[in-house]
Amino acid sequence: MNIKVNGGEFKKYIGLALKSTASSAINANDIINISTNNDKLIILSGSSDFTLKQELSNLIISEEGNINISVTILNAIIKKMTNEEISLFIDPKNNDVLKIKQGRNNSKIALAKEHTISDILKSDIIYSLNLNPKIFKDLIESTSYAVAQDEARPILLGQYIELEKNLIKITALDGFRLVSNSAKIENQHEDMILIHANNLRNLSSLIDDSTEEVILNKNNNKAIVEVKNKNYVAIAASNIFSEEFIEYKQLIGDLSSFPIKITVDRLQLLNTVDRISVVSSFVKEGTHILMKLNKDSLEIDGNSSVASMKGEVNIKNNTFEEEFTIGFNPKYILDALKNINTKEIDMFFNSNVSPAIIINKPEKAEDISVNALVLPVKTIS
């Protein structure tokens, strides 16, 4: 093997390969395969539940080759290099060593004997669906915050993709909050896919402003996603959870039945909660803020044994005539608000012991629709 490649691009793709081995749910594999095929450089990485195949065509290949190498060591060496051209070639004195050269900098890495990553085979495809790259990335990233961190319930480690006619929806929940975001797309398929959130995070990292096309392929046990631009193709295959996801829609319920609905400026509420949540960071006991609803305003109170703060935001369209008080963990409210990008939001309340629902107010047809649920906390009056 003897190739020359742009340093910035190579660092990026090796970094993606490293992520694919480190964040897979099981059987992480540090050894990746790098090969050439005609005018392409192919990087194969991953583990038993997630495989990533990257094809780069913007390079110079003087000699074909096929090597196995530690991605951790390779990444550690090249990440300190500049974006200038990098040369990679087999040491002429030792076929088991890869030499890396950039300017006057020279490095050597011992090659591995073999790798255990299976190539991605697009076989038995049930359907293929073209997705808007930005919408798919935004749906993944705007729901990932609600994925559970506790492995006691494996299905809560996943993000649930639903395909309906002309609609795609991604849902995540962790037992304290839930988010279910959707977007309009051209689609005639109906399906439900549960994928480990780490694997979807890897998929999202493949998509950037240069991405021209994203294709979702599905077979019996894998989701295979192709990400393409002018000089780069990535194909990622993720195992699909066999278990069924939680019946989450009944948790949200019928919003028309909620007795309390208000409209709030999202940034004003976000900044107020963020400022007042500082009080709760000083104490070790359970943290919470109180929201007190009046006719024309929402008062927010943070109180602890060492400090207290209060704030107020204006509200519109209040459907409730009486005062109402409810407590929340401020982190859960902030996470929901930070992952919404519309100017205004609607908030729905049933009682001070029932979940609150936050929905955005999309301004354009292509905007993502957000449904976020947050459980309240018990408070002492």
From TrEMBL:
Pfam families: DNA_pol3_beta_2, DNA_pol3_beta_3
Domain DNA polymerase III beta sliding clamp C-terminal: residue ranges: 260-376
Keyword Transmembrane helix: no
Major localization class: cytoplasm
Gene3D superfamilies in the record: 3.70.10.10, DNA Polymerase III, subunit A, domain 2
Annotated CDD domains: beta_clamp
Location in or out of the cell: Cytoplasm
Gene Ontology annotations of biological process type: DNA strand elongation involved in DNA replication
SMART domains for the chain: POL3Bc
Keywords linked to the UniProt accession: Cytoplasm, DNA replication, DNA-binding, DNA-directed DNA polymerase, Nucleotidyltransferase, Transferase
GO CC terms of this entry: cytoplasm; DNA polymerase III complex
Domain annotation DNA polymerase III beta sliding clamp central: ranges: 131-232
Family note: Belongs to the beta sliding clamp family.
Descriptive protein name: Beta sliding clamp
Species in which this protein is naturally found: Clostridium sporogenes
Upper lineage: Bacteria, Bacillati, Bacillota, Clostridia, Eubacteriales
